[in-house]
Write a structure and sequence with these properties.
mainly alpha; 3 helices; membrane; DUF4190 domain-containing protein
Length: 151
């Protein structure tokens, strides 16, 4: 048997590679003055940005924004009779079909679908405001005596 800090007899070596040194906390093999790299072997982001370890499949693209844009455009077309949103329905449908094959193009089409939805709703609100103002001016400017309760 060997004592503390001595090499064991028979050529046996420590499987963890400790050389018998101890730090101030009693942990063997740690040198507080050694120069260690600031990050692991892959750098600060692991295996490099955008790449995983070999054999791991890439994550599927997230279709939630595409589906929400499609549903919002359909609801705006059907419920609000906003026929300008048909373009948004078409672009988000194309984006949904291309999400697996060309995710960059799908993201661009989804953005355009949201823009079409926003612009069409803004135009519909503007048209509604103009119609209310024209209707209010037309009702307030009539001065004929054929109204209710006329004397």
């Amino acid at each position: 048997m060997s004592g503390h800090g001595e090499q064991p007899a028979g050529g046996w070596a420590d499987p963890y590679g400790h050389d018998g040194r101890q730090d101030g906390l009693g942990q063997p093999g740690w040198d507080p003055y050694a120069r260690y790299p600031p990050y692991g072997p892959g750098g600060p982001y692991g295996h490099g940005q955008g790449y995983g370890p070999p054999g791991v499949p890439l994550a599927r693209p997230d279709n939630s924004s595409i589906i929400v844009a499609l549903v919002c455009n359909i609801v705006a077309t059907v419920v609000c009779c906003n026929f300008l949103c048909i373009g948004g329905v078409i672009t988000s449908s194309i984006a949904l079909s291309r999400s697996q094959t060309d995710p960059v193009e799908a993201k661009s089409l989804t953005g355009w679908s949201w823009v079409i939805l926003g612009v069409s709703i803004a135009l519909e609100v503007l048209l509604f405001a103009i119609l209310v103002m024209v209707g209010a001016l037309a009702d307030g400017s009539s001065s004929s005596g054929s109204g209710y309760g006329g004397v």
